[in-house]
Write a structure and sequence with these properties.
Strand 1 and strand 2 form a beta hairpin. This protein has 375 residues and is of the alpha/beta class. The strands form five sheets. A five-stranded parallel β-sheet has the order 4-15-14-13-12. A four-stranded parallel β-sheet has the order 5-6-10-11. It is built from 15 helices and 17 strands. The model has no long low-confidence stretch (mean pLDDT 97). Helix 13 packs across helix 14. It binds one RNA strand of 83 nucleotides through helix 5, strand 15, helix 11 and helix 14.
RNA sequence: GGGGGUGCGCCGGAGUUGGAGAGCCGGGCCAGACUGUAAAUCUGGUGUCUCUGACUGAAUAGGUUCGAGUCCUAUCACCCCCA
C-alpha cells in the first residue's frame, strides 16, 4: 500500500492524500460505506460505483465467517470475486462484535468465546484465527483483533483491556507476517488504538501502535456513547502521536459534523452505519441539515429530495419518498440509502477540495452548524 | 312488512357470570432514538382540560338497581333470515 499526502490545510491538521491498493486508488479523506455481510444494505454494486462513486467499502469478518462461511468465500476466490466488488475492501475483525454482542461472549487472554447470534452455536476467535479469516476473505485492509471497550468503563477495566489488545496486536502481527496472501493480492494489517476516554491510556496505546510500524493506523473505541467533546479530545490526542505519514482511520464515525471535525484533527478515513441505517429509518442528510422524511410536513412536498444531491435525489420527491418509507416499501430504503451515501461522498469530496485549496478550516467552521440543523 | 342479531378509542380483534375501565392485543397515525450493522429496528404518544391532577366516556334517550358497558323500554344505524 502506498500513501501520499498531496496537501495540508493551513489552519488545521486536515490533509488530502491518496492511497494505492492492488484493487485501486482511494482519495482521502474518505468515507467507506459499511457492507457488513458483503453488501451495502439496499444498494447494488452498480449504483455504489456509478451513482455514489464509492472508492472503498467495509465488510465484517465475524459476519462473513458465520455466514456464508469461509469455505464459500474461499471457493469463490475471495470477497472481491464473491461479491463482484473489484475496488478496495476493508474488513473489520469482529472486535466491535465483541462489544455489541457482549451478552453472548466471554473474553480471555487467549481470545473470545462467543455464541453465534444466528443459531447460538459456540465459536472461538483468537488474534491468529481472526487474521486467518480475514486473509481468507482477502480484503485489502484487515483490522487487528481488539476489544472495543464499552462506555463508560472503569480506568482499571480500560487499562487491562488495553494491554490485552496490545498483546493481541503482536499476535495478529506475527500471524500476518507468517502467512502468505491467499489470492496473491497485497494486504495490509491495521492496528487499533484503544484506551476508552482516558487520556493517559490513549497516549500509551497510540505510542504502542505507532511503534508497531504498520502502514495504516486506526482509532477504535470511540463513538460508543461518550460525549462528542471527549471523542474529539481523544482523537486529537491520538492524532498528535500517530505517524503523520500514515493514514489515520477513525472507526465507526460518524455524523457529517463529526466527520468534518475529525478531518480537521487529522483523520483520513471513516466508516459508519449512520447514512445507511438512518436512511432505512427515514433520516436524510443534506447540506442544510437533517430531514426526517416520515414527518407529516413532507406529505405534500413534491419538491426534489435534495436539489444539490445526486441524480436520484434530484429525481424523486420528498412526498414520494415519504410515501414509500411510510409504506415500508423496499424502494424507499433504497432511495434514501443512495441519497445519504451520495451526500457523504459529496461531503468528503468538497472537504478534500477545501483542504487542497487551503480553506478547509474556514469552510468547516461555517458548514458544521448548518449540518446539525433539523429541517 | 315480519323475525333474529350487533352497536365503546382512528381501524380490526379480545374481553366484561350486574361490582374499580380513559382500558388489553394488533394495525394505522404522530413523534423520538440510532455512530468499526443481532437494527426495513427500537421507544414513546394517540378522548378533553386550566395536564404532578381532574373531567367526560360503552350508538341516542329514558328506566330498574347500593351499583349498568352488562338488565328493561323506546329510537337510530348496520348485518342476517323470511315475505
Amino acid at each position: 500500500m502506498q500513501f501520499s499526502i498531496l496537501a495540508t490545510d493551513f489552519n488545521s491538521n486536515a490533509r488530502a492524500g491518496i492511497m494505492e491498493f492492488s484493487h485501486g486508488y482511494v482519495e482521502t479523506p474518505v468515507f467507506m460505506p459499511v457492507g457488513t455481510i458483503g453488501a451495502i444494505k439496499g444498494v447494488s454494486h452498480e449504483t455504489l460505483a456509478e451513482v455514489i462513486g464509492a472508492q472503498i467499502i467495509l465488510a465484517n469478518a465475524y459476519h462473513l465467517y458465520l455466514r456464508p462461511g469461509m469455505d464459500v468465500v474461499q471457493s469463490a476466490g475471495g470477497i472481491h470475486r464473491f461479491s463482484t466488488w473489484n475496488k478496495p475492501i476493508l474488513t473489520d475483525s469482529g472486535g466491535y462484535q465483541v462489544y455489541s454482542l457482549s451478552p453472548i461472549r466471554k473474553i480471555s487472554e487467549e481470545g473470545v468465546h462467543f455464541r453465534s447470534h444466528i443459531d447460538g452455536s459456540p465459536h472461538f476467535f483468537s488474534p491468529e484465527n481472526v487474521i486467518e479469516i480475514q486473509m481468507k476473505i482477502g480484503a485489502d485492509i484487515i483490522m487487528a483483533f481488539d476489544e472495543c471497550t464499552p462506555w463508560p468503563c472503569t480506568y482499571d477495566y480500560a487499562e487491562t483491556s488495553l494491554h490485552r489488545t496490545h498483546r493481541w496486536l503482536d499476535r495478529c502481527h506475527a500471524h500476518f507476517e507468517n502467512t502468505q496472501p491467499y489470492y496473491g493480492d497485497a494486504q495490509v494489517l491495521a492496528p487499533i488504538v484503544q484506551g476508552s476516554t482516558f487520556a493517559e491510556l490513549r497516549k500509551i496505546s497510540a505510542e504502542y501502535v505507532t511503534a508497531s510500524g504498520m502502514p495504516l493506523n486506526a482509532i477504535g473505541g470511540l463513538s460508543v456513547g461518550e460525549p462528542v467533546e471527549e471523542m474529539y479530545a481523544m482523537t486529537s490526542l491520538v492524532c498528535d502521536i500517530l505517524s503523520k505519514e500514515k493514514p489515520r482511520y477513525l472507526m465507526g464515525v460518524g455524523t457529517p459534523a463529526n466527520i468534518l471535525e475529525s478531518i480537521s484533527l487529522g483523520i483520513d478515513m471513516f466508516d459508519c452505519v449512520l447514512p445507511t441505517r438512518n436512511a432505512r429509518h427515514g433520516l436524510l442528510y443534506t447540506w442544510e441539515g437533517v430531514i426526517n422524511i416520515k414527518n407529516e410536513k413532507w406529505r405534500n412536498d413534491h419538491n426534489a429530495l435534495d436539489e444539490q444531491g445526486c441524480s436520484w435525489s434530484r429525481k424523486y420527491s420528498r412526498a414520494y419518498l415519504r410515501h414509500l418509507v411510510q409504506s415500508n416499501e423496499i424502494l424507499g430504503a433504497m432511495i434514501a440509502s443512495v441519497h445519504n451515501l451520495c451526500f457523504y461522498q459529496d461531503l468528503l469530496r468538497v472537504a478534500r477540495r477545501h483542504i487542497i485549496e487551503g480553506t478547509f478550516r474556514i469552510w468547516k467552521d461555517k458548514t458544521v452548524p448548518a449540518l446539525e440543523q433539523r429541517l
